[in-house]
Amino acid sequence: MLKVAEIVELNEENLTSSGCYCLRSKPNSIGYTNKNEWLTEHFEKGLRYVKVMENNKPAGFIEYAPIEHSSRVVYGENYIVIHCLWVHITGKGYGSTLIKHCLKDAKAQKKAGVIVVTNPDTSWTPSKDIFLKHNFIKIDDAPYDFELLVHKFNSAPDPYFPTDWEERLTYFNNLTILRTKQCPFVDVATENVIQAANKLDIQADIIDITDREQLMKLSPTPYGIYSVVYKKRLIAFHRLTVHSAMKRLKELI
Questions:
Q1: What CATH code is carried by the domain that includes residue 55?
Q2: Strands across the sheet with 6-9, in order?
Q3: Total of domains in the chain
Q4: Domain that includes residue 107, residue range
Q5: How far is residue 40's CA from residue 43's CA, in Å, rounded to a whole number?
Q6: How far apart, in whole angstroms, are the C-alpha atoms of residue 192 and residue 196?
Q7: Strand pairing of 146-152 and 137-142?
Q8: Which positions fall inside the N-acetyltransferase domain (predicted)?
Q9: What is the pTM of this model?
Q10: Using one digit for the tens of pLDDT, what is the confidence trace for 168-186?
């Protein structure tokens, strides 16, 4: 008899045995190790990492945090911000189950609502369609097709994006990679850009963002955790292959 799907919330006690969802096939990789360290640091700041399990195997997960400790570049007060939603066993309502879990938790914490940042050009952000089905509404947008969706519980002021995106790009003329440890794939994304830069004899600078103040000041996109900028132009906000990175860099040489 098949076991009923269950919800498992990660914490410091079960992190080692249960592990995060992404890159779990490579538990010794730098990205996976960095992610677990990041999770341990942020659990005490209100971060939630919740997996749905089917027959003791992970079927999907959701990660969210209070806005004051989130990894998305958005202003607001007393909101929860969803970082990630990913489900690989589809057709069973697991995505909805995880969203409902987050909404219930946010209400229990007496939050004003729940926020998610979406972008149709990358799987590194959640797809907005499922959120629209759960009464999220679009309230703001930003360059590169970023959208801000919110599910509000009361009449609190709306969250919003910064508006100085173009100015932020002017900070970086040299090839610069801005990154955090929130996503385990950031390390691979970084290495691909560095390999491409080396082939073109371009020096790459890396800025490891370690706190929200730095994130809110420097990130050139709402996504926050990974950006590549060269000659004051955004090259990428998600992983590129070495070939794709070379192609984009050549356009600016």
A1: 3.40.630.30
A2: 6-9, 48-54, 57-66, 79-87, 113-118, 146-152, 137-142
A3: 2
A4: 6-152
A5: 6
A6: 6
A7: antiparallel
A8: 25-115
A9: 0.94
A10: 999 999 999 999 999 999 9
